[in-house]
Amino acid sequence: MRILVVGSSHAGYEAVKTARQQYPDATVAMFEEGDKVSFLSCGIQSYLEGITDNVNKLHYASKDSLSKKGVDVYVQTQVDGLDVKNKTIHVVDLKHQQDRNESYDKLILAPGALASTLPIPGHDLKNVGVLRGRDWAIKNKEKMVDPKVKNVVIVGGGYIGIEVAEAYNKAGKNVTIIDVLPRIIPTYLDEEFTDILEDTMMTHGIKLRLGEDVQKFIGDEDGNVSEVVSNKGSYPADVVVQAVGVKPNTKWLDDSGLAMGKKGVINVDAYQRTSNPDVFAAGDATMVTYAPTDEPIYIALASNSRRQGVTAAKNLVKETVKMPSVSGTSALAMFEYKYATSGMKEADAAKSSLKTRSIFVRETLRPRFISETAGNADVYMKMTYEVGTGRILGAQLMSKHDITMSINVISVAISTHMTIDQLAMQDFFFQPNFDHPWNYLNILAQAAVKQNNEAE
């Protein structure tokens, strides 16, 4: 059996690793358009801020390490066509500008996603770019140490936007974030959290221009960007980073015959199988099942991609395991704050057919006789649950102390249909140097139970 895997990031890496283990007699080949495999894009911020000193460390595998495991690795090789009838992919050797067809018995597509850009005047000016992948990580790092770069405009206040804004801020640049939405990271956090984070960003000198629509980029006589114009103002810019989302990298599959969904998403079933029984897909080009509602949703997270890559590889020969539902569990840090989220939040509730309630609680991490200098800190928490059943649908956590790992408890609670009453009495340890007699998750659930009882 010959197994081909297109793409080498999270989903592709897990797919080849699992396929090599699952089918020891098979031939496994991987195709990567770049010159290195398995780049860890979610580690870019650590590189930009100097926590990781070399961009080449942001790889969890190399061509040599995969080759030693029996994987045929083709780098600088673009896959630009699929013929499901003849079971071949069309590839282009970018280094030698030669093309050929590669045949397969089973194919796993993990092409990932591309950074979206704004189709506005000036989009092709120099120093207007994005932040995705190894090449753009290097380009942004170079700009951070360039003394000629003083003003940086970030278009987009999502996860990527605030990460790169913080990195440029710490590099001593004047940073402005512009977003058409009225607050930052609304996909992940409700306003009780974003209000605090916005104040924090401004305290650190980042300018926020929210509720503004970028209209055009203006350049100087040398073709370099010099200004960003929105519907409400104009801002000097030596560098512009567009962080306006991603789109599936699937345009090359338009004539493949595979069933595609909206915005270029590849349709897959619970086994990561496409509309063709010998073609599977995983990663940011596919949808996942959302645990709170059991409905398909697009969530481009590395954790989802890796699970999908494993699932696809295990099901190549027969239906072995279904891809589990996910809750979009994630965490991030912004200056002194660390925050995490899983599942549904209050801002999502109106879009759902479920009847929900949400509760916000502020508590201290430890008993109040433990001082802040001794490690105590405020903990901000919010939970969303289903009215009637009390089923936990999601939660958000934030503190200056790192409590982000606790969001994994919420993810398990969502997947197992745990209720607020159950979490309210769940067994967690107590030690004053660590927490209250009731863990903060107990306290959050207890507040939800009280709210729910008073509403009935």
TrEMBL record:
Cofactor: FAD
GO MF, any single term: peroxidase activity
Domain Pyridine nucleotide-disulphide oxidoreductase dimerisation: 332-435
Pfam family, one: Pyr_redox_dim
Alphabetized InterPro entries for the sequence: FAD-bd_OxRdtase, FAD/NAD-bd_sf, FAD/NAD-binding_dom, FAD/NAD-linked_Rdtase_dimer_sf, Pyr_nucl-diS_OxRdtase_dimer
Domain FAD/NAD(P)-binding intervals: 1-309
Keyword entries, A-Z: FAD, Flavoprotein, Oxidation, Oxidoreductase, Peroxidase, Redox-active center
Family as reported in the entry's similarity comment: Belongs to the class-III pyridine nucleotide-disulfide oxidoreductase family.
PANTHER family: NAD(P)H SULFUR OXIDOREDUCTASE (COA-DEPENDENT), PYRIDINE NUCLEOTIDE-DISULFIDE OXIDOREDUCTASE DOMAIN-CONTAINING
Name of protein: NADH peroxidase
Organism whose genome encodes this protein: Lactobacillus selangorensis
Lineage, opening ranks: Bacteria, Bacillati, Bacillota, Bacilli, Lactobacillales
